[in-house]
From TrEMBL:
One Pfam family linked to the record: Acetyltransf_1
CDD domains listed in its UniProt record: NAT_SF (cd04301)
Species this chain originates from: Kutzneria buriramensis
Domain N-acetyltransferase stretches: 2-147
Keyword field: Acyltransferase, Transferase
GO molecular function: N-acetyltransferase activity
Source organism superkingdom: Bacteria
Protein name: Acetyltransferase (GNAT) family protein
Amino acid sequence: MVEISPLVASDRVEWETLTRAFKDHFNAPEPDDAYDRVWGRLLAATEIHGIAARIDGRMVGIAHYYFHVGVWRSTALYLADLFVDKDIRRHGVGRQLLDWLARHAADQGAGRFYWNTPESDPISRPFYDKVSKYVEMVMYSYPVKREPAIDEGRGPRR
């Protein structure tokens, strides 16, 4: 039986093992201090949140998420990361994590629950296509500017 609950301080070692595997899956390693920062933010549970899926007490899956306000709709729950141990996949753990998050979103008054994943991901896409609705959206990333956008009230810099 899968048990899902919020992350707690004693989860650190198992969480980091799964999180490093998640980052390796996307070939996106992080420096060691990044795990310390994220773990602190997860335990504070003010900006970002984390849950763990366990089977017989062993952590086999994780999810990181946060809530944000919407402009045209109500609050939304955004799933930032979802990962299930590769030896446990195809046993319903990912689906149960999503179900838990959907219930939590509803309990918190969120009207939307969504996430992004790489279009070419051969592991995630088939799973997500099976359990959720694909919404045709294209995501862009724009570089953050370090200088002020408005120059002394004279308008945007060009």
